[in-house]
Amino acid sequence: MPAVACRLMIHGRVQGVFYRNWTVQTARSLGLTGWVRNRMDGSVEALVQGEADAVDRFIALAQDGPPVAKVARIEAMDVPREALGGFEKRQTA
Questions:
Q1: Confidence class of residue 1 from pLDDT cuts 50, 70 and 90?
Q2: Residue numbers annotated as active site
Q3: pTM (2 decimals)?
């Protein structure tokens, strides 16, 4: 499958519940590259890229996230790929 990149905006109770840590672990386990960060509006933003089936699997898993998270909705947008060597947690934007 071709490699794709997707920008995600994750809304709900997703800050203070280890959502970013969960995102890093899950993305790495699926062989994805990218980043995740909290947003000042209370959402979480992520860039995930890799094989299309792995990105789709990540998005499906992100609907639940870690046990104490309550995801209300995820907005997903295809974006150009970035040259990244791994998956990292970034500062709040």
A1: low
A2: 20, 38
A3: 0.93
